[in-house]
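Suppose you are handed a protein chain with no further information: no name, no annotation, nothing but its sequence. What can you learn? This example shows the usual starting point.
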Amino acid sequence: MDRRAFLMTTAAAGTGAMLGVGCGGTEHAVGEVMTVDGPISPNQMGFTLTHEHVLVDFIGAEQVSPDRYDRDEAFGKIVPHLQQAKELGCATFVECTPSYIGKDVRLLQRLSTASGLQILTNVGYYGAADDKYVPAHAYDESAEQLAHRWVREWEEGIDGTDVRPGFIKVGVDGTSLSEIDRKLVVAAAKTHRRTGLLILSHTGYATPAVEQIEIVKAEGIHPSAWVWTHAQNEKDNAEHEKAARQGAWIAFDGLHRSELDRDIEHLTAMKARGCLDNVLLSHDAGWYRPGEPDGGSYRPHDDMFTTVLPALKENGFTNAEIHTLTVVNPRRAFAIGVRET
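A reasonable first move is to predict its three-dimensional structure. Written in structure tokens, the prediction is:
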């Protein structure tokens, strides 16, 4: 089977499969998961950090370039942190840096080999931060044209490599969606229909989350294809529950020891509401920064293991519930398959 036929078969494998519809689900996952080194079974994912970064360049879409850093120096700074995450129990690492803000798939492949982590990368554009990281062509092209670009990366590889994306990453600003934000979300939904890749959207607050769920549904895509990233920014747990009951994934992915009370409160509320089956967890840590001396201060990917998991157990979470949050939910979320309404 040639590459295009394989990819079409993989995307179609989950068509109509409702992975995580509403609150409550099973361990079943359809399709495969795409890492920077190729496809794996969802059952091979193991303990997964669902939103992390290794290198992010904040210079802006028009100036970003791999020439702004030494890949060997970046590798040397980053790899001990990924090796630490592996030693602490992480098996799969979802790297959420999109194009035009520093995504470097060659570096990710090298880091995967050296650390032993299974790493996922993405397609998509980041429309948050007042659109500083949106390339000029995104304003001129239609959502369909953007989707065509992203689907081509899925079919042919990213940046001239054989690395294919394992999910779609977009970003929107924190209030109501702007015109370009809306276009990116529509493009992501169209890309999902043709690839089966999960959509992660930098969102934060309830208003843009609600708007995005409606866009996804209008495109004929079920909300279980969409992740409310940085949901911890929204204080109202009732809003998290509303989105989860429609099937959306609720990602509390800013876990930090300094925010432990906030994080435990959110998770306890989702448990009480019967919605743990729709929750994803991660740190949003890392961030080697080109342009800063020695890449700046790199935050380790360790708080989940050293602080959050012990606190969950102290607050009455069972091993089975923790397994659901860290193993079962990620493999259901990232299993490739078109999820239709």
